[in-house]
Amino acid sequence: MLTKKGKYGLKALVHLSELPQGQLAFVNDIAVANNIPKKFLDAILGELRNAGFVQSRKGKDGGYRLARLPADIKIGHVVRVLDGPLAPIPCASRTQYQPCEDCDEATCQVRHMMLEVRQAIAEVLDNRSLAQMRDAANDDVLAGIKYQI
Hints:
Layout: H1 4-17, H2 27-34, H3 38-50, E1 54-57, E2 63-66, H4 75-83, H5 109-125, H6 130-135
């Protein structure tokens, strides 16, 4: 599951992507507009800055802005920075793999299923940019998704 940290980080990036290129936004403005606790957002934006997604400037005219174009920021990369690996279990992770002590990886059906789940999640998140995510609200991207019960 996406944590609140991941969700808030994505919301903040979408907010920044809606600004004219290069314009700065105050943390408080981002927090209020997206219903995010300011202190938590400060920490999240610090991580996003350290990962190269945003830039900051201190002072009266300071704030945050995107460090790259929204089309160049992949959602999968952001989620990994804020929430860690995409895999639901450690033995299915590509970036933080850890073997299970209680099963044989070659024959473990749970691991094989979770590898598929991890791949499906990565397929969506690694192929969707911040620009696409931002623009999807009024787009037909979601209209093509069919839910099966």
